[in-house]
Design goal:
By secondary structure, the protein is an all-beta fold. Helices cover 2% and strands 34% of the residues. The protein folds into 2 domains: 86 residues, no CATH class; 100 residues, Elongation Factor Tu (Ef-tu), domain 3, CATH 2.40.30. It has a 6-stranded antiparallel sheet, with no helix packed on it.
């Protein structure tokens, strides 16, 4: 299966939706709702983006509708981003590590390194103004921001989230390297299977 190559990435928009249920017939080793690769090559190459991840230049405060990034990006209005959580998830009666205050937002405007979001932030996303020194180490603590949108998108169907049964990519080789997979600049959503 080829969707672009490393030398010539796929430049149009493409969405591949995989359908299926864990109760339907499946192929052994691969399952269903799956791109299965054996004795073949899978090439998925979307348009390169720069960068795909960066950090905040300054703290994103609760209620803010704009964030400022630490570097220039080629991101566009209408694309989705994620702002990583910077807390430990220890609030009220939460179990440490269970709080995920990452937030997904859509870009509505970009001026320089300032991005306007489609809705206000619900949580603080910390970014220190200068590295913090701990003994002999200096640490730059800044929330990460990632671009989620790509021109090539592989996704599960509308039942994926409710059934916890999303799309997968399965590659199997009998040990002779006959299955080759090269994937870059592609978006995967409604993927993964529980149980």
């Amino acid at each position: 299966m080829e969707i672009g190559t490393e030398a010539e990435p796929y430049t149009s928009k493409m969405t591949l939706t995989l359908h299926g249920s864990k109760y339907e017939p499946y192929i052994p080793k691969y399952g269903n709702k799956c791109i299965g690769v054996r004795f073949s090559t899978l090439d998925i190459h979307g348009v390169p983006r720069t960068p795909t991840w960066t950090t905040l230049e300054s703290t994103g405060e609760v209620g803010a509708t704009t964030i400022t990034l630490s570097e220039d990006v080629d991101w566009q209005i209408g694309e989705e981003i994620v702002i990583a959580s910077t807390d430990l998830g220890i609030e009220d009666n939460e179990i440490p590590g269970e709080g995920d205050n990452s937030e997904k937002r859509t870009i509505t405007n970009i001026v320089g390194r300032t991005i306007t979001l489609d809705s206000a932030l619900l949580y603080e996303h910390y970014a220190n103004s200068s590295p913090e020194v701990y003994g002999e180490c200096s640490i730059n603590l800044k929330a990460e921001v990632g671009l989620l949108t790509r021109n090539v998108k592989i996704q599960g169907d509308e039942t994926s989230l409710a059934e916890q049964y999303g799309a997968t990519v399965m590659m199997h080789s009998p040990g002779d390297e006959t299955a080759v997979g090269r994937i870059e600049y592609a978006e995967f959503t409604l993927v993964g299977q529980a149980f």
